[in-house]
Amino acid sequence: MELLDAALIALAGTAAGAINALAGGGSLVTFPTLLALGYPPVLANVTNTVAAFPGYVGGAWGYRAELSGQRRRILVLGVLTAVGALIGSALLLLGSEGTFRAVVPWLILGSTVLMAVQPAISKALARRAAGPERLTWAGVGELGVGIYGGYFNAGLGFMMLGVMGMTLNDGIQRLNALKSVMSAVASLVSLVFFVIFAEVAWPAAIIMAISGLVGGWIGARVGRRIPPAPLRWSIVAFGLILFLMMLTGVLG
């Protein structure tokens, strides 16, 4: 790896870590960076997924107090999320590079839309009246989200939070904590699967993982001074540009 490429990957990882700490959606920075540097789409996706794992673990650890009393949820949803991630990871490797190239622009568009509506989802969850726990439906939803996460990591947390908010009766912070654990579970399953069966660009993955942790720390430190709305809409605009570039073949 050339020094300039390493510097760009480190910069993207730092930016992604900060964005994840502030608003989420950091993969919309790291994935296209790898594509722009010449990594094939599937290799870029695999490497991006592997690099995201430490950040998910850090997020889950930060929410450990809110996980109290959620053991049954973690066990049930964790198993189904893991199964889904395994299926999604297998589908990625069993499919062709051409299929992934055709699908990924629409996955990026979906992630971008989720990024745009995430504040509305959070507000809806905060206003949600007390209701029955629908853990079975949450499990079905998590199975589907796990498949998505194993195939393409970007936007995973937004999808998980949406499913949990519609099926579980709890506050936004406790659901965020549960989402962080499930994201770590899905990422771990994909990581192990990819290490065994796929090619990983380890230098890039290690640089992104370390710089992502640094970026997360920076984001947490400066987050109170950055208005979230302009940041979010900047990421949404970037995601839409990325969608068009992928769709037209300009990138990837």
Sequence-ordered SSE layout with sheet pairings:
Elements: H1 3-22, H2 27-36, H3 41-62, H4 71-94, H5 97-127, H6 135-151, H7 156-167, H8 172-197, H9 202-222, H10 228-248
Helix pairs in contact: 1-2, 1-9, 2-3, 3-8, 3-9, 4-6, 4-8, 5-7, 5-10, 6-7, 7-8
How many domain units? 1
Label the structural class.
mainly alpha
**Count of extended strands:** 0
Radius of gyration (CA) equals 17 Å
- Give the DSSP E fraction (strand runs of 2 or more residues): under 5%
**End-to-end distance, in Å?**
19 Å
Classify the helix fraction into a percent range: over 70%
Q: Oligomeric state of the chains?
A: single chain
The main sheet comes to: none
Mean pLDDT score: 84
SSE string? HHHHHHHHHH
Low-confidence stretches: none
Number of H- or I-type helical stretches: 10
User: What form results from the Cα inertia axes?
Assistant: globular
Written description of the protein model:
The chain has helices spanning 3-22, 27-36, 41-62, 71-94, 97-127, 135-151, 156-167, 172-197, 202-222, 228-248. With 252 residues, it is mainly α. The chain is globular. The model has no long low-confidence stretch (mean pLDDT 84). It is found in: Cell membrane. It comes from Microbacterium bovistercoris.
